[in-house]
Amino acid sequence: MPSKTPHTNGTDPVENGINSTKDVEMKDDAPAPLKGGKGKKAKEGEEMAVVVPPPKGSKLSATPSKDKDGDTAMDGPVEGDEGDDGAVKVDPVTKAVVDVKSNFPLLERAVTHFDARFSLRALRSISSIRNRLTPDILAQVITETYQSANPAAKSLLKSLDREHAIFGKTSSIEMEIDTDNKPKAGKKEPKEIIPEIDVFLGILTQIYFLESKDYKKGSIFSAYLADRIHSLNRRTLDSLSARVYFYYSLFCEQIAPLAPSPSSPVVSIRPALLTALRTAVLRKDIDTQSTVIVLLLRSYLATSHIAQADLLISHTKFPENASNNQVARYLYYLGRIRAIQLRYTEAHEHLTAATRKAPSSPSAAGFFQTATKLLLVVELLMGDIPERATFRQASLERALQPYLLLVQAVRVGLLGDFEAAIKQHNDTFRRDGTYTLILRLRQNVIKTGIRMMSLSYSRISLRDICIRLKLESEESAEYIVAKAIRDGVIEASLDRERGFMKSKEVGDVYATREPGEAFHDRIRACLVLHDESVKAMRFPMNQHRLELKNAQEAREREREMAKEIQDGDLDEDDLGGEFEGM
């Protein structure tokens, strides 16, 4: 405990253990080496005392001295205990509580400055806290933050089964600060807790239920939290409310019966999501609006309601200022819907943009792999062969191995290898959600085989085509060849009377418009990326007004100086250097 009397100069224990109660008087005629001079000798007749400090890491063997009040000076650290190696041991529960409560000032700053970046910083810190969350830690944070009569605290404790927790407790660190630094005055008024802290603790509670796989209790608590957010209209809650609805939908996806069933909770949550979307649009809540649109599309695709998903896309406008992660998810689901609707060109554009916007962090590798798998299937359905470099990427090589077999079969046009690859990796394709699209590739394999034969032979009979492609009859081969000629897959003519296909001479591909169109697509993608980067730039608020004000004041000073020069009050010598900058 520190002494109540004021310390005089020299009463604090110094590093070498010497203590004195007398004030030390600093004189100007101190020895030259002590004054920092180099090469100067001490005056004659004066003795120069040199104090050698102990080396680092050594502990004093002398007993600690006592001050005037008899209190012993503490040499060791005040907080925490030291082990044999000198490291300070920290209680993991106390550390977790401090980490959770350290986000409260960020939320308060977000409300004070009306800046959502502080809320996003608090949300990003959840990844380092989520593995340490327990009901006792959350209950301790709640009881140390709220008063006993707070209804939000009671509801949080009830959801955690900690209704009998004692309020009013403070941590040991806060108690030391209060007793040492703060005078004992009247009782401090309780600090008002902002709703952002309530919702943040609710999100931590959701994450605890998710980590403990208690999905039923998590969905019930999420419904309560969503109703509370719906009753509030605060723009500083936008990013937090979006995260609440995300976990709400995630809980419903894990509760039986699962997604394809019409009685699944995924279907029952849709009215709540649609209500949240309508409210977010009216309040111009961009974060919640983008998140809920993505969750609704995910829900419709889980139950194969493609028509309803298409209606949602046509009747809503995805916000332009949404976060990059939500834009990537929205483009992926939009590409999947367009692929199912046989609109492969649009699906290819959306999926390509989704893979480009996918986060590069290792934690988001799963999304990049899923989007790339669907993109490869769409490219095959369009009649294109994906580049081999795609399968050589370190993060995709193992996940795309089944799709590499498909691409090889389609590229060569071997129908037997194609069917063998589907049979071998049937479970993988069903799990990825690409099985129904891959079944459509059978016609593409046949078309590719016909294209290869049209390039190899100037004339080939329909019977040979039937044998090579393993078709049932010559009539089916004639139908497939005619359709390929009409679709522009091959440049050939069909002689039905003689029963053969005659290929036309292949011209130079660079004489066509295909290279120019591919180059134009790449330029357009770069321009779109540039425009989005410019839109995402942040600037200080009202900075342009300050610059305009400074420029206007500079112009006024120039006018006054020019007027004084004309009147003869000033000359160039009086202006000095300022006149040269005019």
Automatic annotation (TrEMBL):
Protein name (Swiss-Prot/TrEMBL): Proteasome regulatory subunit C-terminal-domain-containing protein
Record's keyword terms, sorted: Proteasome
PROSITE patterns linked to this entry: PCI
GO BP terms in the entry: regulation of protein catabolic process; ubiquitin-dependent protein catabolic process
Biased composition (Acidic residues): 567-582
Pfam family, one: TPR_PSMD3_N
Lineage of the organism: Eukaryota, Fungi, Dikarya, Ascomycota, Pezizomycotina
Chain segments carrying region Disordered: 1-88, 552-582
Residue ranges constituting the PCI domain according to the UniProt record: 328-508
